[in-house]
Specification:
Structural class of chain A: alpha/beta
Order of helices and strands of chain B: EHEHHEEEHEHHHEEH
Strand content of chain A: 15-25%
Oligomer: heterodimer
Largest sheet of chain A: 6 strands, mixed
CATH superfamily of chain B: Spore Coat Polysaccharide Biosynthesis Protein SpsA, Chain A
Helix content of chain B: 25-40%
Order of helices and strands of chain A: EHEEEEHEHHHEHEH
Radius of gyration of chain A: 18 Å
Largest sheet of chain B: 4 strands, mixed
Strand order of the largest sheet of chain B: 2-1-3-6
Structural class of chain B: alpha/beta
Number of helices of chain B: 8
Number of strands of chain A: 8
Number of domains of chain A: 1
CATH superfamily of chain A: Spore Coat Polysaccharide Biosynthesis Protein SpsA, Chain A
CATH architecture of chain B: Alpha-Beta Complex
Helix content of chain A: 25-40%
Low-confidence stretches of chain B: none
Largest interface: A-B, 22 and 27 residues
Number of domains of chain B: 1
Low-confidence stretches of chain A: none
CATH topology of chain A: Spore Coat Polysaccharide Biosynthesis Protein SpsA, Chain A
């Protein structure tokens, strides 16, 4: 029988103003429930790999935690994502592709980020990545055959560790763009999933609203119309409160 | 036979037409470069209080044939768009399919529209919210003539209902219903990149006086969330300035 894995990194680190564990608890609970229901292994990395400085780069070391070929398919998801209790098993949505959801929330950010990283790192100078093929790295689904992508990223990180751990260019993100540039550079076959599978910038998209005109059901749209809720695009100060409100609204479904 | 750019443009004497003229001129320029003809739909077939122009445009094939205009493929495009001079000829990339660009702005607007039209017009049927196309850029050909007949018949048979829901829902006119009908009639759609219908550019944070958006795509749709610059209307400012930068 195929064995699949959901992997989450949630590490409190002195480089962050906020402790991730404050808001990730309920998100992790949702994933634990869903994994158990769908007979999928779940792995929470709460201690950083000794080779890693900034916690976010632990994602790229996912394959170092398991024996090679232990899992057929793997999903790496951010600790600020929550999965809906009855979401279908997304591992059935793809075969051998590398999957993600296109990130079109702020194209200025994406444009600037791609140009900044391309100009900074020789490895990506020739990589032509369009803003329209850029995926959000908060929910990634792939196969064991993609280990070499992560090997490339790990080596890239270790080679440039000092620069990346001290990266302070504002408004261009950390590893997400390097992830996308790598996928493009290595010519990885990708499959773009619908936004239901990584609903980012929910506030900007109006997904915290319900239909105030029909007013039949006072449930925010994101709950009824998507499966993986990614609490991005919210000021970090409000994130914990919004996640807690969400959890108190839906937690009874996870029993 | 030439490909046609078909642009609904009714001057309501409310001042908005000034900006739209820049859009139309950009399409005329592009059409000349790409051996297409531009047809402006400027005389309504029936009062717009009964059928908005956005609905009347689906009489497209009747209008062309009544005027003895020969055609191959047709782009129906809104007059609040400006095309980039270097825009590739999208007619070469349609594979003979119905083409559009996925709505990528306020999901709330789309979902609320779907729920409202589902409730009042489409017998509680629902359609997926994440792949509806924007009505402002649609490419069709002769094979879609019967579909447009279904669209116009459906509207006329349910006219009063549509007028009520339009008024109540405030989620546009034809855009949500055309997506219901496309799915109901199993019309195969080819989705083009956002760069061919760059809607809601304010939400994407690309419309600013640095004109970044002009580097990121081909068809700029000045439909909502435009930043205010000076005293004049947003669409006039952005359409004129964009036209002058790209085409003068």
């Amino acid at each position: 029988m195929n064995k699949n894995l959901v992997y989450i990194v949630s590490i409190d680190h002195n480089s962050s103003r906020y402790n991730f564990s404050n808001f990730s608890k309920h998100c992790i609970d949702s994933w634990k429930y869903w994994c158990e229901k769908n007979k999928i292994d779940f792995y929470l990395q709460s201690e950083s790999n000794p080779n890693v400085g900034i916690p976010i780069w632990n994602k790229e070391f996912v394959f170092t935690n398991f024996k090679e070929n232990k899992y057929d398919k793997i999903a790496v998801v951010d600790s600020d994502t929550m999965i809906k209790w009855d979401a279908p098993n997304f591992f059935n949505l793809y075969d051998d592709e590398f999957c993600g959801v296109l990130d079109t929330a702020n194209l200025r950010w994406t444009y600037n980020s791609i140009n900044t990283y391309k100009n900074h790192f020789e490895e990506f100078k020739q990589t032509e990545l369009s803003i329209y093929e850029y995926i959000n790295a908060g929910v990634l689904m792939f196969c064991k055959e993609h280990k070499y992508v992560f090997d490339y990223l790990m080596n890239f990180y270790l080679k440039h560790k000092y620069i990346l751990d001290n990266w302070n260019v504002p408004g261009v993100g950390k590893e997400q763009t390097i992830f996308n540039l790598t996928l493009k550079k290595l010519n990885i076959k990708q499959k773009y999933l619908s936004p239901e599978w990584n609903l980012i910038s929910m506030n900007k998209r109006g997904m915290f609203n319900h239909n105030w005109q029909l007013n039949k059901r006072q449930v925010p749209f994101f709950i009824d119309y998507s499966y993986i809720w990614h609490f991005t695009g919210i000021p970090i100060e409000s994130k914990q409160s919004i996640i807690e409100q969400t959890w108190s609204f839906i937690k009874n479904n996870y029993q | 036979m030439k490909n046609i750019i078909f642009i609904p443009f009714i001057d309501n004497n409310d001042g908005r037409a000034i900006g739209y003229k820049y859009g139309i001129q950009s399409w005329k320029n592009w059409a000349k470069k790409n051996n297409c003809d531009v047809i402006i739909f400027d005389t309504p077939i029936m009062p717009i209080s009964e059928m908005k122009v956005t609905w009347q445009r689906y009489f497209l094939f009747n209008m062309l044939e009544n005027s003895d205009i020969e055609y191959d493929q047709i782009l129906m495009v809104d007059c609040d768009t400006i095309v980039h001079p270097d825009c590739p000829n999208f007619f070469n990339d349609t594979e003979g399919l119905y083409c559009g660009v996925i709505n990528d702005g306020s999901y709330e607007w789309t979902i609320r529209g779907i729920e409202n039209y589902s409730e009042y017009v489409f017998n509680k049927k629902v359609i997926p919210w994440f792949n509806t196309i924007n009505g402002g850029f649609q490419i069709v050909n002769k094979s879609h003539k019967s579909f447009f007949k279904i669209v116009t018949d459906f509207y006329l048979n349910n006219k009063d209902l549509f007028l009520q829901v339009q008024q109540f829902s405030k989620t546009g006119s034809d855009q949500i219903p055309i997506n219901f009908l496309l799915q109901q009639e199993n019309i195969k759609i080819k989705y083009l990149s956002y760069s061919f219908n760059m809607m809601e550019m304010g939400k994407k944070e690309i419309i600013n006086t640095d004109f970044l958006f002009t580097k990121l795509g081909w068809v700029f749709h000045f439909n909502s969330d435009l930043p205010k610059v000076g005293d004049e209307s947003e669409d006039l400012f952005w359409m004129r300035e964009t036209y002058n930068r790209l085409w003068k």
